[in-house]
Amino acid sequence: MFAFIIRRISQAVLVMLVISVIGFAIKQNVGDPVREITGISVSAAEREQLRDQLGLNDPFPVQWARFLGKAVQGDLGNSFYFKRPALEVILSKAPATLELVLATSIIIVLLSVPMGIYAAVKPKSWLSRIFMGASIVGVSIPVFLTAILLIYIFSVGLGWLPSYGRGQLVTLFPGWDTGFLTKDGLLHLVMPSLALTSIMLPLFIRLIRAEMKEVLESEYIKFAIAKGLRPWRVLLVHGFKNTLMPVITVGGVQLGTMIAFTILTETVFQWKGMGSMFIEAVERADSSLMVAYLVFVGFVFVTVNTVVDLIYGLVNPMVRVAGRK
Amino acid sequence: MKRLLLLALSAALLGLAVAGCGEQKKEEASKAESAAAGKTLRLAIDADPVSLDPHVQLSGGMLQYSHMVFDPLVRWTKDMKFEPRLAESWEQIDPTTLRFHLRKGVTFHSGNPFTAKDVAWTLARLKQAIDYKGLYEPFGEPVIVDDHTIDIKTVRPYGLTLNMCTYIFPMDSVFYTGTDDKGLPKDANVKTEYSFANGNESGTGPFMVTSYEPGQKWVLKRFQNYWDKDTGNVSEIVLTPITEDATRVAALLAGDVDWIMPVPPQDYERIRATEKVKLITMPGTRVITFQMNVNRVEAFKDKRVREAFVRAVNNVGIVQTIMKGDATPAFQNSPQGYAGHIADLAPLYDLEKAKQLMKEAGYEQGFVVSMIAPNNRYVNDEKIAQAVAAMLAKINVKVELRTMPKAQFWDEFDAQVADVQMIGWHADTEDSANYIEYLNACPNKETGWGQYNSANYCNAKVDELVLAAGGETDMAKRAAMLQEAERMLYDDFAFIPLHWQMLSWAASNKVANAEEIVNVMDFPYFGDLNME
Is B240 close to A165, i.e. CB distance below 8 A? Predict the structure, then answer.
């Protein structure tokens, strides 16, 4: 077990190094931050001087080594635009993204479970066909188009919902302003979370439907029905419980996709989370913030994966051996 | 047991949440009361100011900010005249001295009185600021006559002293002197890190910054002791950057904001057609051009080839189709109202003549040129470049076009990676000489002239005229020189002129005098705004 832990952790460190190199390679090609922070008539010599001060003229390996040395101490550099440590900026934007993801997850759970089960139990009914048809449409429309459509229907057309931003926030504790506790904040949350849901929901409906269909064929369900249990109890307790395992696994994997789609959704709704922060950092050539974000997200993923693997290893010794083949 | 625990925990959380809500409600109520007393302008801009320090960067956004929080000595009116702000009057004492009589009884946001000392201090800081030092190079040491009189001196006769005084927004020298709680000097001008001035302001302007989160939300409140009592009635500005064009327009149409700038051209029609909002446009001064690099392409040294290129490009057509009429076709650098503007230049598009010229020059079969343009810097930049490429194909010139985001474009532009490069220019000095100095003068590393002349076009006569105009204080003479320079560039087909971009703002009908506060520099004077 000890060897396994060491192996997994060293793999994680290696992955992080690769991520930082890739992030840095992107940084070198995203553009010149100095251009973005100086007026157009500033002389070339002055710009060069500024580049020197910011260490942008050093060779790639030198810059990378310097970044790494600081990163190990938890310093991911300084955002040129925010004029603050990059990590601080990222953490200050995290609550917005997490709340959006949480709201979306809740909607997905509330919708996909009944829809998926219904579509499995009555595959031929017109309602099931509507669910399945709509889910194909949802997946095929790009999320930013869905978002713009929502804005034009509900904000511009009907005037029901606010068009951008997070609305009124309440400080939950220092560093976390939440929109969950005000009516205004919740109204602002509706459209962004719906747009994000439109992309993720179909997959879960189909997954639950497929798993459920399989389970409903099995012996123990037939037995339960034969025993005379109530149909909904058979469905939920005996059937659905056993579909949960693959659904949760896929849900975990989908978290990454979710992070990618939040970038688009946040940009359209000007939802000031990590996603829109990243896009704006790219546009402003705020390269240190961009790299910090890539490394940060990479770190979160690698850590989660490693911990999950280690737990698997504890629970199921087979996994530990598998690596030695 | 587990369930019991869970229940207890969720009940506790719910209790907390409800308590929080209660407190929030009280706060909201008090906020609502204070807001009811005045008018709040909800403003959405494509990018927010990058700092509270007006000298950190010379950009449109920072100047818009400066006009909200600071006052300049003098400012431009809508018809390109100077109007007094912190300077009540001024007179030329000798060729290198301009005496300003400053307004009395003006206070800074900190409560400190405004005097000539603040003007001198601000000018000294401008001369140190990376983005401004070039513009203030002709300025010498000012002389403080008394508390409310100051002599602004130049090292040589200089015709644009007043133009440059529109950028002198006096800062509170007492407030910005000394060290802050981190032990750093308060007057430090820092672009990328913390500085006192980046996070604190004390100007004399109509609004004070009460809170700001970069890239997210700014709240500015009316300054109670503002010297100008004869201004607008906006008591609070809530500034939100909305980078996404479609969202910015939707926010205005939905009534979530009262004023947006800039307006994406594809939405002009929609806004014009909507009852409750209005579109305000104005011919701007940013010229869009293409430069033909004579160092990369031998053929461009032949004036006939340059002429053929210029005549092959139907810039009037581009304005009509791509810009939907919302731009002004250009045949020179200087827009109308500038000293060097020539009113009677004939349109240049003539495809037959262009083909004829190519034939004469021996390039009937044409040749291949590379071209670069940005795709997110100017209005429709990418589409314009594609149109120009298609037009050049008609004289058998094959264009290899690459477009890229502005963050990457400037490095490529400087490296002169392509034969034909797009550049747009707006003169920081609001004057003709600036265009030629940067875009068409012989490139010279020492003087910085021709810094954006990727055509490497070099005409000593043009340079001479512009240099002489720089020291000319007789404005009529000066204008004649600059017009002569512009005409030379026109006759010599030095570059491919396209158009001047339109400036655009849109506001809800609650805003009463929107047309009066905008100007060709794109610094709306929100202090003068009235709302219903």
Answer: yes
The Cα-based distances of B290 to B296, B321, B395, B526 in angstroms read 15, 19, 17, 35
The pTM of the full predicted model, rounded to 2 decimals, is: 0.85
> A1: how many CB neighbours lie within 10 A of its CB?
10
Structure tokens at B295: 């160092």
Do the Cβ atoms of B418 and B372 come closer than 8 Å?
yes
Tokens of A255: 């978290």
Give tens-digit pLDDT for B422-434. Answer: 999 999 888 999 9
Which positions in chain A touch B193 (Cβ < 8 Å)?
Answer: 78, 83
Judge contact between A258 and A251, C-beta under 8 A.
no
CA gap B354, B343 in Å, rounded = 24
Average pLDDT over residues B429-456: 91
Distance, CA of B509 to CA of B277 (rounded, Å): 5
CA distance A141 to A197: 12
d(C-alpha B80, C-alpha A297), whole Å? 51
Gap from B231 CA to chain A (nearest CA, Å)? 30
Q: In what order do the strands lie in the sheet with B149-153?
A: B87-94, B97-102, B149-153, B143-146
Burial (CB count <10 Å: 0-12, 13-18, 19+), residue B300: buried
* A185: chain B residues, CB-CB within 8 Å: none
Q: For the residues B236-244, what does the mean pLDDT come to?
A: 92
User: Given an 8 Å threshold on Cβ–Cβ distance, is B244 in contact with A268?
Assistant: yes
CA B256, B257, B259 angle in degrees (round to 5)?
160
CA dihedral (B219, B222, B223, B227) in degrees, to 10, reads: 140
Provide the pairing of β-strand B398-404 with B217-222.
unpaired
Rounded CA-CA distance B507/B255 in Å is: 10
Could you tell me where the beta strands, DSSP code E, fall in B57-172? 74-76, 82-84, 87-94, 97-102, 143-146, 149-153
Non-local CB neighbours of B184 within 8 Å, separated by 6+ positions: B194, B195, B196
From CA B291, how far away is CA B287, in angstroms rounded?
A: 12
Please tell me whether the peptide bond between B185 and the residue prior to it is cis, using omega within 30 degrees of 0.
no
Alpha-carbon gap, residue B84 to B76, rounded angstroms: 9
**DSSP-assigned letters across all residues of A204-242:** HHHHHHHHHHHHHHSHHHHHHHHTT--HHHIIIIIIIHH
What are the tens digits of pLDDT across the range A6-61?
888 898 899 999 998 998 888 888 888 888 888 888 888 888 888 888 888 888 88
Q: Which helix (H) or strand (E) holds A52?
A: helix A44-54
| CA–CA dist B257, B193 (Å, integer) | 31
Which residues lie below 8 Å from residue B187, measured CB to CB, with a gap of 6+?
B125, B176, B177, B196, B197
Distance of CA B377 to the CA centre of its chain: 13
Q: State the average pLDDT for chain A.
A: 83
Q: What is the 3-state secondary structure (H, E, C) of A151-196?
A: HHHHHHHCCCCCCCCCCCCEEEECCEEECCCCHHHHHHHHHHHHHH
Interface test with B, best of A53, A79, A164, A274 (most B CBs within 10 A): A164
Q: Nearest CA to A298 among A109, A138, A61, A90?
A: A90
Nearest to B51 by CA among B117, B131, B113: B131
CA dihedral of A124, A127, A130, A131, whole degrees rounded to 10: -90
- Could you tell me where the beta strands, DSSP code E, fall in B107-244? 143-146, 149-153, 207-213, 217-222, 234-241
What is the Cα–Cα distance from B373 to B423, expressed in whole angstroms? 8
Is A42 within 8 Å of B251 when comparing Cβ atoms?
Answer: no
Query: Which of chain B's residues have a Cβ under 8 Å away from the Cβ of A285?
Result: 407
- Sort out which chain B residues have CB atoms less than 8 A from A168's CB and list them: 24, 28
CB contact under 8 A, B192 and A54: yes
The residues, ordered by sequence, that sit 6+ positions from B501 with a Cβ below 8 Å of its Cβ are B284, B286, B288, B327, B378, B379, B424
